[in-house]
Amino acid sequence: MSKFKTTFYTIETGKIPGLKRPWRLALLADLHNKSYGPDNRLLLEEIRKNHPDGILIAGDLIISDRKKQEVHKDAAYQLLIALAAEYPVYLGNGNHEHRMREFPDSFAGEYDSYIRMLRSCGIHTLVNGHLTQQIGGALVTIYGFELDFSYYKRFTRKPFAVTCLTDALGTPDPGHYNILIAHNPVYFPQYAKWGADLTVSGHLHGGIIRIPGIGGLITPQAKLFPKYDAGYFEEQGRSLIVSRGLGSHTVNLRIFNPAELIFIDITNRQEDITK
């Protein structure tokens, strides 16, 4: 797997009426320490070519292996450092980062050094946290939600309540445009009910094998034909964008399922913007 596709989505909102042009965000997920050319040159070139205003990271840029007590990180670290030098970067944890944090003894305190590196570069580490800023004269809040490792166990789907989000993040202000970075997309109905105007996710690797006309075949939790496998979804008037991911792990296989870099243009609903 040496290539990736670039996908564009447009999200319209009435919550940012002062936008004069699309606010463009790049979405990266599930790199799993892969490098597209030396120092991820090809990936960086594609990002630069499309001039994003910021970068959303939806988790699993690294590989953490608890059995081997190993972390594979160098390509991911180099990419993050390069991105942070040019763009605002908003990062949420995936299950691989969470594993490092949850089991520090297995990884010799690697998570703490990881977070220090990110923060030293100016990366916004949104681990059950949030950041509010002004975009187009309106308030936009970006949240990062870290799902507990118990929700990632194979052959199970643990019940998930909206209170899990309010306990971790509080209640979003409905007057803000609220973006939620949530690595696992399967709980999108709860994310939407909580108040996320836009949720960005990854984790499912597009279903690993995609069947034309049907979609992704299987999730990392071994669930067949996942609903939120990849692409754009809308429920309760709220949006979800799921990345197919940029790398792979454990099952190093992609069929009809190229790796993916995503750009999201958030626009004023009243504007007539064409690409």
Folded structure, characterized:
- The strands form 4 sheets. A 6-stranded mixed sheet has the order 1-16-2-3-6-7, covered by helices on one side.
- The protein has 6 helices and 16 strands.
- It has a single domain, classed as Metallo-dependent phosphatases (Purple Acid Phosphatase, chain A, domain 2).
- The protein is globular.
- α5 packs across α6 (188-194).
- Helices cover 20% and strands 29% of the residues.
- With 275 residues, the protein is an alpha/beta fold.
Quickly list its features.
Metallo-depent_PP-like; 275 residues; alpha/beta; six-stranded mixed beta sheet; disordered C terminus; metal ion binding; Purple Acid Phosphatase, chain A, domain 2
Termini Cα gap: 29 Å
Percent in helix: 10-25%
What's the helix count?
6
Main sheet properties: 6 strands, mixed
Task: Going across the biggest sheet, name each strand in turn.
Answer: 1-16-2-3-6-7
Class based on secondary structure composition and strand pairing? alpha/beta
Bulk shape? globular
Number of self-contained structural domains: 1
Strand content: 25-35%
Number of strands: 16
Low-confidence region ranges: 271-275
Please tell me how large the radius of gyration is.
18 Å
The CATH class designation is Alpha Beta
Mean pLDDT: 93
GO molecular function, one term: UDP-2,3-diacylglucosamine hydrolase activity
InterPro entries: Calcineurin-like_PHP (IPR004843), Metallo-depent_PP-like (IPR029052), Metallophosphoesterase_sf (IPR051158)
Organism: Diplocloster agilis
Keywords: Hydrolase, Metal-binding
